[in-house]
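Trying the structure run again after the queue cleared.
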Amino acid sequence: MLTNYISAAMHKATYELLEDGTFYGEITECKGVWANASTLENCREELQDALEGWTTLGLRLGHTLPILDGINLNFSKEVA
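Done. Tokens:
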């Protein structure tokens, strides 16, 4: 499920070529997940690394993560 979540998020990534010749990428659904690199491929790789770290930390800290393409990684909190 985690692999599918990462894949779904990466499909939502947007990239742009900056004036300095570097590439900037972000996933707007995942606040704070962005990357900047000298090539598009490096930007994609760095963006995925950032996404994986963001997702892992979010799960560890109990943050609510966005539901992407119907994939929900959030733990449901049951009321006793």
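The domain at 2-61 is CATH 3.30.160.250 (Double Stranded RNA Binding Domain). Worth checking whether this holds up in the mutant runs.
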